[in-house]
Amino acid sequence: MSLDVFHKQFDAFLRGEIGEDEFKPLRTIQGVYSLRGEDHRYFIRIKLAAGILVPDQMMAIADMMDRFKLQASAHITTRQGIEIYGIRKEDLMSVLSRIEQAGLTSFATGGGTVRGVTTCSLAGVARNEAFDVTPYALVISNYFLRNPVFQKMPRKIKIAFEGCDEDHVKISIQDIGISALTDSHGKKFFRVYVGGGLGSLPVLAQVLEDKTELELLLPTVKAILRIFNERGNRQNRSRARLKYLIADLGIDEFRRLVLEERIRSLTSLFRAYEAWGELPGAQKSPNGSVESRRHDQKFNRWLAANVYFQKQRGYAAVFVRCPLGNLTSTDFRVLAEISREFSGGNIRTTISQNMILRWVHESDLVELYDALNREGLASCCAEQITDITRCASADACLSALTSCRGLAVALEEMLSNGFGKIKELASIRVNVSGCPNSCGQHQMSDIGFHGLVKRAGEHSIPCYRMFVGGRAAKENSRFGKFMITLPARRVPQGFKKVLEFFLKEQHVGENFEDFVQRLGIEKVKSEIATLEEFSSADVAAEQLFKDLGSDVMYRVITKRGEC
Question: Is the pLDDT of residue 239 over 90?
């Protein structure tokens, strides 16, 4: 659907010729969502294939935020997109037009479409990758973006590409996960996974095909989507995702149907570019300037935690931590200029809601750090325990039950009091979702939380369910196990007690996941079990009726989500 067509539909809606129920699916496929608590404002989800964002586009987003007086911060999503908030109805078409003028799109970030294709943010520069998956991800993204055959599927489809041994993009929870591999002869191929998903009934993806030839990737994805389109559940939205179709058919029958359909699709062969991202001069050696700051403790921590040395000798990829996944218009402008100066404009978003500057000369790392530090963008420890991933939650989402922002801030404050610097805790990842829908991917982290509500007399108590022991590792992925439900205001205390217990009982070299597996959920839970129960007196004394980050009495205000 073109923007001109949507403009006519929007005008018809404003004139009252079509109602909200009819207009909602038209705007959500365009990436336009109702903003929680703001009846006359929207938020827009911008799609970034493979997380790629160029400086001019960052400047355009900053200009939109200022020109149209949007909310102070945009948000990086766990699918590498960008959400901007507070668009007035009278400005909607102007904002959408500006997005397209910048070479971006919000189309197909809603509805029964192929959503943003996520990709390992280190693709092309990772030291242990099989090969760069970026060009293949872009082909898949572009092919399905406005393909009319796949715009009204039973539900959304999430696709992710990984080229590394590690599962950086969590392909095990995608509708379609695509992993790059090579055989003993160096031949390249993909392993294709299907049917993963989170939500209240999480399912790990299963292997559809161990070795998919490069030329067969597009026909394979097309075949999966055609079978889903034909056989997916259109009567019951709660069972419309691909994982339910595979559960009903069984993986063997689903595989048979897909491979038969693929044979009929083999006229759509494609070959992706093999030299994506190879920059001239990639063998330049560092001049040793990194060593010149060994006396600077803050720089050393940043260097150890935020800098990844690329497989191309002399170059580094630098993670820019975006606290809570948020960026202001000033942040966008500063990062645009810094990326031009230090990385040739090569910048991507990550599923952990950060930015990554790629192709930075090692000899420029000190100067880059200074530039980021001057702008307050040199926060340490990206991708570690203090770098909490969270969904937009009650700040924007209609279906959210709690404020992930409030919880994330409270946990970060607790960690800032020394815990965040403890080496044994560094690798623990924390994810937070505002409801069971799992947009914050809480089941796939070492420690995860999702919001819910409990009643205590006349009070509604915002709470979180706590999960422990999750991991993303392709076939060896594991969902975190539910451990306990805590009032929101007690979660930081419970979180701290669990970390203290880990430090006390940890075996040498043992990570948190293995620690949980060794001791068992009940043993870990026993450390904080007393925090679960509360009386009416507790509710009043501890103000448990208030959400974290809020000074007003909590009220349940939810509507059906639009994603």
Answer: yes
My answer on whether 202 and 293 are in the same domain is no
Residues 360, 367 contacting (CB under 8 angstroms): no
| Pair 533, 395 in one domain | yes
Measured from the Cβ of residue 249, the count of other Cβ atoms closer than 10 Å reads 16
Unique residue bearing structure tokens 């044979």: 263
The identity of residue 388, as a single letter, is I
Beta strands at 82-88 and 73-76: parallel, antiparallel or unpaired: antiparallel
Structural domain includes residue 310: yes
pLDDT tens by residue, 144-186: 999 999 999 999 999 999 999 999 999 999 999 999 999 999 9
Q: Distance between CA 483 and CA 532 in Å, rounded?
A: 11
Count of domains for the chain: 4
Residue 130's beta-bridge partner residues?
A: none
Q: What is the pLDDT of residue 560?
A: 75
Q: Indicate the SS3 state at residue 217.
A: helix
Residue 114, CB half-sphere, CA atoms under 13 Å: how many?
29
Return the amino acid letter for 317. Answer: A
- In angstroms, rounded to a whole number, what is the distance separating the alpha carbons of residues 315 and 335? 19
Supply 141's token pair.
């993204």
Instruction: Let me know if residue 549 belongs to a domain.
Output: no
Cα distances (angstroms) measured from residue 539 to each of 125, 460, 533, 550: 52, 10, 10, 15
Query: What does the block give as tokens for 345?
Result: 């404009």
Confidence of residue 278 (pLDDT cuts 50, 70, 90): very low
Confirm if 80 and 51 have CB atoms less than 8 A apart: yes
Please give the residue range of the domain that contains residue 317. Answer: 289-374
